[in-house]
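Sample entry (127 residues):
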Amino acid sequence: MKNINPNTILQIVALLFLVIIGYMTFNSGSNWKIIKSELDRAREELKTSKETLVSTKSDLEKFKKEFEKMRLQKDLLIHKRDSLIFDFQKKNAKDWEELQRIKDSIKINNDQLAEDKALIKNALGIN
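Predicted structure, serialized as tokens:
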């Protein structure tokens, strides 16, 4: 075995001793406990914030779907109203050209009505 210098051994032992004392001082110190409690509290706040964010996102998706349903229902009501107006105009048409224009408008409106009904059924999950 090699001849080890006694000063080197003493330096290693002293360094090890200082590391142990430093660890014990830092671990048992009130600052460490304060830091640890603050970190734990921050973790809890982050967890709560994450849960709140997830629930808010879910609520937002629900509101978005409800808003889309209401928009589709509004469009359906508008097209039904237009259909009634065109029907009234058809009955009161004065000449053949006006009647043809009204019939074309009715056809376009009825196509939009059918499309809106299909969209609403799809949004509500009705097959």
